[in-house]
């Protein structure tokens, strides 16, 4: 298999066209290109390559409608660059490449789009900007003509559509956007996403994605090393999200125990039972439904006050299921529950799994990233005993959506479980090592390239950079917890320091704070969070999530995965909740 150093820069891959590594090279290349190419194309490329530099020096200007003055293309030598007089209102998509002589128009058009995006990005990080320009659906429908038409639109219209779409988009990079587990926008990750879209290929075979397949190999191995599997051995895949990764795990567990299920289906298999905590993610049940196991075969195990699965209850329910004639085949422990951020006790759970010979899965979609933190990885002690692990870099590591990995301890199982040998894709007589044709391991046929964002960010930050980013988010949540735990008007949903960045709390406005009738108080409190949230969205100042859980009425679930957030933003959130909720 590929050596670790394969994709290190420089070294043995000294081809003729790999010279874009040193910072001065693009410029040199662009100068050469400017001389070679006609119509000023080289100079335009030159301008494209220098966008970043322009951005740095002219921050406020970035918010203005983009304009490249004549001669300001960014070339560091005299040139004849002028922005060509392209009038987009006279042009259509058919004037762009592959149209004959479409290159200048294409570059000007794309430059226009890039300028738009750059302005949006810079604005997103500005605290004076709204997180969201909220409109009700019927209102938003009327604000623009979103209908699809028979006739083509001009490129001018296309640019207007791009602007309108961004105008009403949620600024997920905004330092005060806390609504989801996936927040923030990483600049290198974004660059990687742009590159991925430009390369526009499919992950299924080495022949169409040579570099991306190798990067997936290298990265999955690294992730398995971090889990603690010897030499990073095992298998894995990047899937379209944690829910799908969890379903893959369930599929593998069933196949491992009953390989005949692949051909014969569920009628060849006894009644199965899966186990997971009552606080686990709904995707476990969804997976059971999709795989024909049925949601009633997913047995929910009691969690303690802090949301951790109670191992004794797990063992009791396994025995009970066996007695009823079910075959326990799958336990999904959660490392970082979605609402409380709780970590199930993995060592105790793995002991039970071993005793009853059940596949142990760890759903670390949210909490798996803590494995990268020396300070916090103890919360996943025992993860190396798992048969499979879900880990979503698109959550705590802020890799642009989507990026989710399923890691599997046993090699070859995914291949056996999912392969169909489509001979139009996976010809057995190809001239390279076929183990790099990873596509047949997947349930999908075509598969999006999700790896490059993660890999490039990892390169840019180093493992220690990710660690620092994750530690900082946990520090911020601890700050929030310490700030509100004894503050007047606040009540924590459960006692004790949160284990992840989830901080769950009620805010009690003065009007209900001292109510004698506790039932009435509960009823009123249930309505507080939704109203404050609605007001946050109307003002566009911040966004944070809320939900009920079990018998607990609506509470705020604050989560921090946004590397742009600071202590001041946490202060702001508290002030804003009080400002918007004071009168309720
Ligand atoms: C978010 C989450 C998932 C689902 O991940 P997606 O990428 O949204 O599909 C699964 N499990 C847990 C614990 C999660 O928090």
From TrEMBL:
Region (Disordered): 1-26
Skewed-composition ranges (Polar residues): 14-25
Domain of life: Eukaryota
GO molecular function, one term: glutamate decarboxylase activity
InterPro entries: PyrdxlP-dep_de-COase (IPR002129), PyrdxlP-dep_Trfase (IPR015424), PyrdxlP-dep_Trfase_major (IPR015421), Pyridoxal-P_BS (IPR021115)
Membrane topology, as annotated: Peripheral membrane protein; Lipid-anchor
Subcellular location(s) of the protein: Cytoplasm, Cytosol; Cytoplasmic vesicle; Golgi apparatus membrane; Presynaptic cell membrane
Membrane-spanning segments: none
Function noted in UniProt: Catalyzes the production of GABA.
Self-association state and partner proteins as the record states: Homodimer.
Annotated protein name in UniProt: Glutamate decarboxylase 2
Organism: Nothobranchius furzeri (Turquoise killifish)
């Amino acid at each position: 298999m590929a050596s670790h150093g394969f994709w290190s820069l420089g070294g043995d891959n000294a081809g003729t066209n790999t010279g874009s590594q040193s910072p001065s090279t693009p410029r040199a290349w662009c100068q050469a290109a400017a001389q070679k190419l006609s119509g000023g194309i080289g100079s335009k490329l030159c301008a494209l390559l220098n966008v970043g530099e322009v951005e740095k020096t002219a921050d406020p200007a970035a918010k203005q409608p983009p304009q490249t003055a004549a001669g300001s293309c960014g070339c560091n030598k005299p040139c004849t660059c002028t922005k060509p007089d392209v009038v987009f209102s006279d042009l259509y998509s058919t004037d762009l490449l592959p149209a004959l002589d479409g290159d200048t128009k294409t570059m000007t058009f794309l430059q226009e789009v890039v300028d738009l995006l750059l302005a949006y990005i810079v604005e997103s990080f500005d605290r004076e900007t709204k997180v969201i320009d909220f409109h009700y659906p019927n209102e938003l429908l009327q604000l623009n003509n979103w209908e699809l038409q028979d006739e083509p639109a001009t490129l001018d219209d296309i640019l207007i559509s791009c602007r309108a779409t961004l105008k009403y988009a949620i600024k997920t990079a905004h330092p005060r956007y806390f609504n989801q587990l996936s927040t923030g926008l990483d600049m290198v990750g974004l660059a990687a996403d742009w590159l991925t879209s430009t390369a526009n290929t499919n992950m299924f075979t080495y022949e169409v994605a040579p570099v991306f397949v190798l990067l997936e190999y290298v990265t999955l191995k690294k992730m398995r090393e971090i889990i603690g599997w010897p030499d990073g051995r095992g298998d894995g895949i990047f899937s379209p999200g944690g829910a799908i990764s969890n379903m893959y795990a369930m599929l593998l567990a069933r196949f491992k125990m009953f390989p005949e299920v692949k051909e014969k289906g569920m009628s060849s298999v006894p009644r199965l039972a899966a186990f997971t905590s009552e606080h686990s993610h709904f995707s476990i049940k969804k997976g059971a439904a999709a795989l024909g196991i049925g949601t009633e075969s997913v047995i929910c195990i009691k969690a303690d006050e802090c949301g951790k699965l109670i191992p004794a209850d797990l063992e009791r329910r396994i025995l009970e299921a066996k007695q009823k004639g079910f075959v326990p085949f799958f336990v999904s422990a959660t490392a970082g529950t979605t609402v409380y951020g709780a970590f199930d006790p993995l060592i105790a759970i793995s002991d039970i799994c071993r005793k009853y010979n059940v596949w142990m899965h760890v759903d670390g979609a949210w909490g798996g990233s803590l494995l990268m933190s020396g300070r916090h990885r103890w919360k996943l002690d025992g993860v190396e005993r798992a048969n499979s692990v879900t880990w979503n870099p698109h959550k705590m590591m802020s890799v642009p959506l989507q990026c989710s990995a399923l890691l599997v301890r046993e090699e070859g199982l995914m291949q056996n479980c999912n392969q169909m040998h489509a001979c139009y894709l996976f010809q057995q007589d190809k001239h390279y090592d076929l183990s790099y044709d990873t596509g047949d391991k997947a349930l999908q046929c075509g598969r999006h390239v999700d790896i490059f964002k993660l890999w490039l960010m990892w390169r840019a930050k180093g493992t220690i950079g990710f660690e620092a980013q994750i530690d900082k988010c946990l520090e911020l949540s601890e700050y929030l917890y310490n700030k509100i735990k004894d503050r007047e008007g606040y009540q924590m949903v459960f006692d004790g320091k949160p284990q992840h960045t989830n901080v769950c709390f009620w805010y009690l406005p003065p009007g209900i704070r001292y109510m004698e009738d506790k039932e009435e108080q509960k009823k009123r409190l249930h309505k507080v969070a939704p109203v404050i949230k609605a007001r946050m969205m109307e003002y566009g100042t911040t966004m944070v999530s809320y939900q009920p859980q079990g018998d607990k009425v609506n509470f705020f679930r604050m989560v921090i995965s946004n590397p742009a957030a600071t202590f001041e933003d946490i202060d702001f959130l508290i002030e804003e909740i009080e400002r918007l909720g004071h009168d309720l």
